[in-house]
Amino acid sequence: GVWFTTEMRAGEENARLLAELTAAQGQLAAMHRETGATAERERLARELHDTIAQNLTSLVMLAQRGQNRGTDGAGMRDDLELIEQVARDALTEARALVAATATVPVDGGLASALTRLVATFERETRIEIETCLDEVGALPRELEVVLLRCAQEALANVRKHSGASRARLALGREAGAITLTVGDDGIGIGADDAASAHSGFGLEGMRQRLALVGGTLRVASLAGGGTELVATIRANER
């Protein structure tokens, strides 16, 4: 009698709780899927901004420079070679995005990729970059991609916003922290722009990329003029 009725009610309650738990798990899984889809869309948006959009900007600038060459045949040939290279890079990046594969060529290591990035930047802009690439050891590819993307965005800012004539790029490791520093001798950046997610400098995208791997970004104007950007990742915690 009483025992059987109690057991029946307990069984029904357990069944109800199990059904609620199953439903909650389903809702949580759906939320995770939606969050993952949103994160992926944001990642692709950042990839498009960091790669194809910047390559197209370079093509426009090179084409404009070519129009101003006049009778400078040698200079025009140099520009055409650069246009071809940048266009090929843009095509490679587009194919990589479509194929959902890695979009940054870091096969030779981060230092090698940064060296190539700096060489291309100097050729395109005539802005001299002082580089100091210390040995940082083997890094997970994920960290290399994030740091290289930060370098690309930082140099794009030097080109588009700083009015600089010289810049510097340094990579180092100390006490387990990997630091990427990009500085210039340009006009500097205001505190509001450095903190804003909508400043047009791509800083929020860099912060988001770094946050995904436990990193941080510091941006400031230098006392003697110019801007310094420091990306830091605690590699020893990974």
UniProtKB/TrEMBL annotation:
Cellular component terms (Gene Ontology): membrane
Protein keywords: Kinase, Transferase, Two-component regulatory system
Molecular function via GO: phosphorelay sensor kinase activity; protein dimerization activity
Superkingdom assignment: Bacteria
Ranges that cross the membrane: none
InterPro entries: HATPase_C_sf (IPR036890), HATPase_dom (IPR003594), Sensor_HK_TwoCompSys (IPR050482), Sig_transdc_His_kin_sub3_dim/P (IPR011712)
Keyword Acetylation: no
Domain Histidine kinase/HSP90-like ATPase, first and last residues per copy: 142-237
Record-given protein name: Histidine kinase-, DNA gyrase B-, and HSP90-like ATPase
Origin species: Herbiconiux ginsengi
Higher taxonomy: Bacteria, Bacillati, Actinomycetota, Actinomycetes, Micrococcales
